[in-house]
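pasting for ref
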Amino acid sequence: MTGYTRSGDGLHVAGVGEDLLRIAGRLNIPIARLEELNPGIGRRDPLDAGQVVTIPSGHCYRGTIVAVSSRTASPGLVIVDVCSGDVRPVEQGECAWSSVPALSSDGEYVAYQGASGRVQVIPSQGGRCLTIGRAPSGYVRPIWSPSGQFLAWDDDGMTEVMSATGEQVARIEGTGPTWLGNGEAILTVRGREVVKCDPTGSSCDVIDSWLRPGDQVWAVHGATHGSMYASVASVEGQLVLTVHDWFTGESSTVPVGENVWPWSVRWSPDCTMIAAESGSQTASGNQVTITFFEVDRSGPGLRPIDEVSLVSDPRYAGLSWNNTSTAVTVAARTGGTGAYAVYVLEPLGAVHRLTGRGDHVLPDWGPSR
């Protein structure tokens, strides 16, 4: 299945004498939404009879999505209102296509790696950037603590923990940091071990380890349910996704394909599902498959329930849940222009396209503003 065939929406066949303005009036669609989804067509440009026009599909989702976009000439941050489809710039010229933006839990701030390599924090309504930390040697993805008090990211084999106001809190041994529960603990990977630390790094404990030769843990992902986390590891030559309860010691494992990106795993906020991405090369280009897993927290248990494939590149697709755990956002190619657009994808449901003008990649979904 592909997301482009799941939605069953988004198309209007123009009649004689129609233009976007007339279609908007007839279908009760804001004209700005039609112009967004049909770049290059003016609102009064005459359409040919039978010409296909993209129209927005109805959905009930809310919140804001931040993404990296080319609509401001150079790569910059934009905010997409999920309900109205309005797109507005937040920052211009200080980020790169590899800058992974992250919204704070309250939606007030965006953290991302700036063009200089250092992490920047900017109000989501726009304003002055705060530059924090030093420049790591490679690409980083800053992650907010649930309270919005701290930020953490990889830094040359260590985990940098900073306050949102720019003070260094700790440098913790280990990579791939993730917040556990309400943010009172942070998990990192140290070779074959998963280590749980308090945010200051003053107390750390190994909570899981892979001891067989050749085994390796590649990524770990904390859940908002206090004692739950997921890991992606190579075990006896096979890549597996495992849900753990570190408090009870119980776990559940499912094998995943070798093309799964270990760093893409995302818990739904209510901890009932996990989404993960895998990448592959097809005749039409790069393809991303999003797999949804149902999680039984009482077991714990884990089973795949849905799979959707989109024409995209795993490096730029992004993956983020909405606050109600009912949909995710990803970036994928549009059928017409080949540009990257922001999509809302429902597990076992439809796909809704939100943007059309320019490229939009690495979306992160936050609350309404």
